[in-house]
Amino acid sequence: MTLLILSNLLTCLCILLGVAFYTLLERKVLSYIQIRKGPKMIGVMGLLQPISDAVKLFTKEMLLPHKTNYMMYWVSPMVAFSLAMMFWIMYPMTNGTSTLNLSMVIFLVLSSLNVFGIMMSGWASNSKYAFLGAMRAMAQTISYEVSFVFIVLFVTFLSSSLSIEEVNTGFGYLLLFFPLLMIFISSIMAETNRAPFDFAEGESELVSGFNVEYGGGGFVLLFLAEYSNILFMSVLASSMCFGVSQMSMISTSAQFTMMSLLFLLARGAYPRLRYDLLMSLCWKCYLPVSMCIIIMIGPMI
């Protein structure tokens, strides 16, 4: 029991450090895309910039907006952060302490609960901009959740297991169906509210979206939850595409890095779409294709 608790705490600490330096990588990649240098003043080549940002945000005063639902206002960042950390606790580790037989089912349950942190934070802020951003994010997440679940079930049926560890040790099934891989990648970008599907934010009409009224520690928790979900989706995508456990640690790290870089390159290369086109893409294109794949799974097996 003690080993399990220590393993989970170490995992969460590593994820927090990974998120911190992933934000630095994002700022560096976007800056070079835009032909500039990015963070470079704090530390060697800006390597201490994430630590500086964390200290600044956690030491800022957290203000409570007028007429907010104060209990839900404080609880919602903690809910979002806790759900994001639960993803990593169920992922199989090398010491075998976190192996679960039905981890894929737990993943689908947690991913469906992910929307509650956004909904609670947007509704409790007592702001029209935050509420509209939360409504956008909820509709977008729930819509793409359906096709995303169908693709995950497709891989689990082919691997004949509901365990993430079995999916890891299997063949990269999505490489056999490249259009399905593209649907999966764009679905996880929409799930995590990333560009070009970041409609939870809108600088011209929503300022910063559902988290516009948060500052200091509350904003940090929402920020960590979003980027932790991005990293976990990158790990899951590399598992479903390549079967990472069959390869060396260097190959596994390269696959994960490539998947996580896709999020950054997409943000730097593509403009934000129209919201009605996003929803039309989901319900008229992605959902029929994913349903047809599920119907075909019986003859394929």
UniProtKB/TrEMBL annotation:
Membrane disposition: Multi-pass membrane protein
Catalytic reaction annotation: a ubiquinone + NADH + 5 H(+)(in) = a ubiquinol + NAD(+) + 4 H(+)(out)
GO biological process terms on file: aerobic respiration
Molecular function as annotated in GO: NADH dehydrogenase (ubiquinone) activity; NADH dehydrogenase activity
Localisation: Membrane; Mitochondrion inner membrane
Gene: ND1
Transmembrane segments: 6-25, 70-90, 102-123, 144-164, 170-190, 244-265, 277-298
Protein name: NADH-ubiquinone oxidoreductase chain 1
UniProt entry tagged with the keyword Kinase: no
Pfam short name (any one): NADHdh
E.C. numbers: 7.1.1.2
Presence of keyword Cell division: no
GO-annotated cellular components: mitochondrial inner membrane
Family: Belongs to the complex I subunit 1 family.
PROSITE patterns for this protein: COMPLEX1_ND1_1, COMPLEX1_ND1_2
HAMAP family: NDH1_NuoH
UniProt KW keywords: Membrane, Mitochondrion, NAD, Transmembrane, Transmembrane helix, Ubiquinone
